Amino acid sequence: MKKLIAASMLLALCIAACENRQQSSDSKETAEDQNEAKFDNTQVESDAAFAVKAADGGMMEVELGKLAQTKATHKEVKDFGNMMTTDHSGANDELKSLAQTKT
After folding, report:
1. Which end of the chain is less enclosed by CB atoms within 10 A, N or C?
2. How many whole angstroms separate alpha carbon 66 and alpha carbon 85?
3. DSSP code for 72
4. How far does CA 69 lie from the centroid of its chain?
């Protein structure tokens, strides 16, 4: 019975993880679609595409920093993960603020 409960919980976690990845991908696609629909100017479109790529990369850096903080065994690696999380969170906030003023 305990094995069945553990297997059910593991399956639920796997499904949740897959749904989170799908939502992330859908959010990026939605942003790109909105940018394409909103802008006819190629320079503005190019800037918007850059912003989407920068935000995607920045969010990945934050997640990698969090992973380094929780999984690393060396203090230097944990400190580096903390620095990545802090720096890229700040950069992501700035990019978000800038994007909101431009829309």
Report:
1. N
2. 6
3. -
4. 17
